[in-house]
Amino acid sequence: MAIPIAYNVRSVFARPASALATTVGIGFTVAILVGALALAAGFQQALIRTGRDDNALVVRKSADSEISSGLTRDAVNILRAYPGIASGPDGRPLVSAEVVVLTNKPRLGQPGSSNLTVRGIDPEALSFRERVRVVAGRMFTPGAAEIIVGRRIVHRFAGLGIGDRIRFGQRDFTVVGQFEAGGSGFESEVWGDNKVLMPVFRGDVFQSVTFRMKDPARFAQVQHELQSDPRLGVDVQRESDYYRAQSEMLATVIRVAGVFIVIIMAVGAVFGAMNTMYAAVGARSREVATLLALGFRPGAILVSFVIESVFLALLGGALGCLLALPVNGIVTSTTNFSSFSELAFAFRVTPGALLTGLAFAAVLGVVGGFLPALKAARQPLAAALRGG
Amino acid sequence: MGTVRIRDVRKAYRRDSQEIPVLDGLSLDIAEGDFVALMGPSGSGKTTLLNLIAGIDRPTSGAVEVAGTDITRLGAPQLSRWRARNIGLIFQLYNLIPVLTALQNVELPLLLVKMSGKERRRRATTALQLVGLGDRLGHYPRQLSGGQEQRVAIARAVVSDPTVLLADEPTGDLDRRSAEEILALLERLNREFKKTIVMVTHDPHAAQRAHRVLQLDKGVLSD
Amino acid sequence: MNLLSLVLVNLGRNLRRTILTLLSVAVALFLFSVLGGVIDTLQGAIQVGSEARLVTRNAISLVFPLPIAYREKLAALPGVRSVSVSNWFGGQDPKDPHDFYAQFGVDAATYFPIYAADLDIVEASPPQAQVALPAGMDPKLAAFMNEQTACVVGEKLLKRMGWRLGQTVTVKGTIYPGDWPFTIRAVYRAKNKSFGEDAMVFHWKYLDQRGTGGSGMAGIFILQLSDPGHAADVAREVDAMFENSSTATHTETERAFQAAFISMYGNIPFVLKIIGFAVVFAILLVAANTMMMSFRERTSEIGVLKTLGFDDRTVFTVVLAEAAVITLGGGLLGAGLAKLLIPGLNLQVLPPMRVEWTTVLRGVLVALLLGAVSGLLPAWQAARLRIVDALRRV
Question: Which phi and psi angles does A234 have, rounded to 5°?
Fold first, then answer.
């Protein structure tokens, strides 16, 4: 027969100092776990949202990112003529051959410099990247030495405000606008007209070609047709898949580092929980002995104390989730190692992360409470009854 | 039903590598409805004997038969069950659970028996009324005096209607007046409700209230 | 018995609690020291790269190449003792593309002499024929020099990938497409702690021929200076020399070049600092709570000590000392473990990590501080305890 849970709940609150210490210890651990998950989720989301399922992205064969890819003008012309490309309302094909270059620019408010991604686009690019919207200033004029800056990085680099001039290669460009892109990785880039940017970067090659597919459901066929064309030598992916793959490495690193830290903290938290529970068991040995004397089985005592430990741990887990919540939406940035460029993104605390945090707390409660509970259940009755 | 029969019981404790015998070949008969006081100096084994009768401890050798059952033959789970149904325990330090109310404390033994919540509360209330604390159901132990706490403990001891009550120095921590109340209550339980009572005590006054007084010295019983 | 043995006896009274608390302090300080090591690495406190070497790259972006013809002009500069070339190959392991390691195509004849002080060749295949090697090159590199598709790998990389000397491994090119087989002809070990052992180095000429059809594109130039004191001057001269040509350059010390990679980590050091504080704070609570628990149990004992003549100050010291022993022991254990274990940890995206003695010292100081703070309240209460109260609270 079970010992009433009220007993355990009230016993926890009867020793507030102890409970508080354990709760805080577990709380911080859970907060960090949720934070790490939120960091990885935010990062992945920024990259996943960057691409669309109905756009196809073409890079040179076996290039692992746009940066390492190179498509010749000939190849680009062949691609532009591909019949599988959808047409816009004005009849022009929705395709953009793009130059993607990493430049190194000084950071704003922090020492050092970082890599800044500059993308030269065809003006059509905005028509099939619907999430991209100019939200301040204006779009650059085709043919002019003008650029627009993604919202996320306006304050991360020096000289990216509207009206500022920034130098690429031998030429100065004027910042004429800022754009949003649905929280995606594009918001960490600078965009300009590729006809103006290519000569500046001394390149005769494009890095990628992106287009809207006429029939997105037939992607496999598009992929096959383009990849088997001997004149081209390209790899084709859905734009969304490409960016998903880009995010994997860093997301994994964040998760691994987060897990590493969390495991270590968890070990510490478990030690703390064990201490608390041992103390509780020790202080209540007469109570436990009484329950045993009354006829409650040792198994019931064991379960009872484990439940108490789990309850305490869940309190900590709830605290941890509360602590982690404010982090949601905070924008931070780091370098995406797959593309070596700066990526700004927002923490994303998902319900899944919170649940994981709570479940983790519960596990800590079980692990930390088990041995003390065992001790309580096994204690020799006679001695304990007399308070000895 | 409420008889206690102890045959040639030995109990030795092991301390480091030495065996210290506490009870050595003790035999005892207690008839149903009897009220026995166990007296003796410290360390004479009174509490040990009580624990053996309660099934809280096992003898090194010998037989202990309580309420018709040889409890030395019971396995641990059966022993727990048996104890919940047949024994009521009263301790010197009351041993109430501090975070539970008086009513909840008295309900505890009933959790081990199949019973609805309503029935359980009814029985516990009755037991508390019996000991005169019907107006203190919702009080916590720290809100009660020593005497009141012991009365709650007695209510808990009788709520499952056991045949044997074992009391270990029930008045040891109480002042004269409270002690009197407790002893009167025990007498009543014995007289009216036919409970067999075995009471360990230091206090000769308390012992006087019993029908029989047994002296236990160095593990040996005498009248 | 002296005061220290009294402290130890008290701690031994509830050994399990003492050990658990000590272990949780150790865990916290282990994490604190590891994070400290990472922060130090990321903030470049661990100096990677030399101040006596310069790196020249394309001014617009690292991803753009420089004409190989620049080499002659660079070598001719006064103050430049030798010039080498290095191209980032950026390939993948065809079996596991996510298992990252660095590959460089270098001009071996100049590269290895420049880095002779930083690495040792520990294993090498015997050469097929006797060949005269350039001055300053380890003769063990003869086999590597003789073979176009040979490579030299770091010892850590060799072990990690399970390779053997003489084995041919395939790298899948991403920037230079195709499957590139390389035969391991030598293994190097880093002589100083900041030089990585996870790289594969092969011949630039081969990369140039096969990868770009002889178009002569260099990734970066590495300049060995005759006088490190002139680094800034030489750097300025180099950039001035190419300022108005088709490909402008940007030259900086190797250390600054590496630091630029590290500064890419952005906010992460800040986040790690916060975590470090959070960890310490949480453990502080645990430790303090344990001291209070233990104190509460021993109230009567302390009362008895006082009746025996121990004065308030001595009692204060004893309780505080108990706290110090636990936290100091835990701190030494945790920080010490961090120092020992971390160099074995290889996080691919970070430069070689280690925990400096300064970090260990910081950790131990934090532990002591922890001990002082968590022991103060119980110690003070113990000192204040009146004998009468203590003995009554049985």
Answer: -130, 165
Q: How far apart are CA A300 and CA A3, in angstroms?
A: 7
- Is A66 an interface residue toward C (CB < 8 Å)? no
Domain boundaries, chain A: 5-48+246-385, 55-212
Strands B35-39, B212-217: pairing kind: parallel
Taking 50 as the pLDDT cut, the residues of chain B under it are none
DSSP assignment letter at C133: P
Exposure of C392 by Cβ count < 10 A (0-12 exposed, 13-18 middle, 19+ buried)?
exposed
Supply the Cα-derived Rg of chain C in whole angstroms: 30
Q: Which two tokens stand for residue C48?
A: 């990677």
Q: What is the pTM of this model?
A: 0.72
Put simply, whether A37 touches C (Cβ < 8 Å) is no
Count of A-C CB contacts under 8 Å: 165
Which residues 296-325 of chain A have a CB within 8 Å of chain B? 296-298
Residue C349 pLDDT: 54
Secondary structure element (H or E) that encloses residue B26, with its range: strand B18-30
Q: Which of A128, A133, A140 is nearest to A92 (CA)?
A: A128
**Type of residue found at A150:** G
Ranges of chain A whose pLDDT falls below 50: 388
- Quick one: C330 exposed, middle or buried, by C-beta within 10 A (0-12, 13-18, 19+)? buried
Phi, psi of A374 (to 5 degrees): -60, -40
The whole-number pLDDT of residue C385 equals 78
| Chain B interface includes A361 (CB < 8 A) | no
Q: Domains of chain B: which residue ranges?
A: 4-222
**What is the model's pLDDT at position A388?**
43
The nearest alpha carbon in chain B to A6 belongs to B100
This complex has an ipTM of 0.77
User: Which runs of E-coded beta strand occur in chain C?
Assistant: 53-58, 66-67, 80-88, 102-106, 119-124, 150-154, 168-173, 178-190, 199-203, 217-218, 220-225, 249-253
The per-residue pLDDT for range C109-135, each reduced to its tens digit, is: 999 999 988 888 888 888 887 778 888
pLDDT of residue C306: 73
Which are the contacts of C314, defined by CB distance < 8 A and separation ≥ 6? C3
Q: B10 pairs with which residues across the strands?
A: B24, B61
CB within 8 Å of A205: residues ≥ 6 apart: A70, A71, A72, A73
Those residues of chain C that have pLDDT short of 70 are 1-2, 42-48, 193-194, 260-268, 308-309, 343-354, 388, 390-394
Chain A residues in contact with B142 by the CB 8 A cut-off are: none
Please check whether residue A7 touches B, CB under 8 A. Answer: yes
Pick B4-222's CATH classification: 1.20.1300.10, 3.40.50.300, 3.40.50.20, 3.60.130.10: 3.40.50.300
Q: Which chain A residues have a beta carbon less than 8 Å from that of C267?
A: 332-334
Distances (CA, A) of A104 to A158, A367, B10, C17, C372: 11, 50, 89, 55, 48
In three-state secondary structure terms, C267 is coil
What pLDDT, on the 0 to 100 scale, is given for residue C194?
65
C interface test, pick of A18, A66, A68 with most C CB neighbours within 10 Å = A68
pLDDT of residue C293: 76
Kindly provide the b/e burial profile for residues B193-214, where b requires at least 16 CB atoms within 10 angstroms of the residue's own CB.
eebbbbbbbebeebbebbeebb
- Of A201, A250, A340, nearest to C60 by CB-CB distance is A201
Contact residues on chain A for C288, CB-CB shorter than 8 A: 21
User: Nearest-CA neighbor of A48 among A253, A334, A243?
Assistant: A243
- Does B47 sit within 8 Å of A3, measured CB to CB? no
Q: In B32-157, at which residue ranges do the beta strands (DSSP E only) sit?
A: 35-39, 61-66, 69-70, 87-90
Q: Do chains A and B touch (3 or more CB pairs under 8 A)?
A: yes
